Write a sequence for this structure.
């Protein structure tokens, strides 16, 4: 399972590195969305309204949906799904590998967006850095949930079905992530939100390991 996960993650990351869609399209989209969020707040309210953490996670969610749809489009290309099926790869390893690759892509994007939030939304640099581990966990949980829902909504209608079906599952993660980041900014110790993120990550990983083969066949 671990070997399969590594091979699948390496394959997905190589495809992304060669296409450079993440660097030249997805990350600029996230930066522009964050900039528009700052403009919507206005120069006097940015950094004083408390909306910065929520806007950061809202933009991160939009980027995650883009990346999930892109990964499903690659997997659904003619011949790709059938070719992978004939290899007889362990479905649990495939799930873990795709989750790892998506998490790495989202971690890179989140790092850029966190820097943008410091510049545009005036989040305190020290507090933002201290909240970075919670962001990593939240984004990893988004990747695990996104991989599951991407498999569930595979097909021609995935681009429209994915947001509708996945947003209820993403909502608790966004709330927990926003509360964790807000707690770091306001110097409060809301550790229970960390617990929710970790529990969600473990739960989605367990569900994916057990059910990914069934979801891929639907």
């Amino acid at each position: 399972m671990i070997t399969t996960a590594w091979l699948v993650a390496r394959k997905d990351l190589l495809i992304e590195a060669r296409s450079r869609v993440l660097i030249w399209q997805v990350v600029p989209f996230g930066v522009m969305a964050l900039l528009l969020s700052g403009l919507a707040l206005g120069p006097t309210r940015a950094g004083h309204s408390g909306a910065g953490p929520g806007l950061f996670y809202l933009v991160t969610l939009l980027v995650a949906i883009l990346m999930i749809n892109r990964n499903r489009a690659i997997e659904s290309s003619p011949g790709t799904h059938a070719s992978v099926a004939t290899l007889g790869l362990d479905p649990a390893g495939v799930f873990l590998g795709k989750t790892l690759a998506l998490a790495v892509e989202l971690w890179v994007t989140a790092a850029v967006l966190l820097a943008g939030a410091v510049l545009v939304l005036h989040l305190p640099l020290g507090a933002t850095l201290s909240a970075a581990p919670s962001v990593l966990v939240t984004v990893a949980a988004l990747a695990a949930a996104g991989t599951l829902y991407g498999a569930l909504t595979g097909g021609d209608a995935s681009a429209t079905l994915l947001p509708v079906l996945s947003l209820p599952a993403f909502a608790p993660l966004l709330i927990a992530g926003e509360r964790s980041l807000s707690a770091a900014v306001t110097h409060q110790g809301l550790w229970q939100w960390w617990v929710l993120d970790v529990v969600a990550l473990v739960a989605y990983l367990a569900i994916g390991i057990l059910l990914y083969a069934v979801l891929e066949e639907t």
In short: The chain has a mean pLDDT of 80.
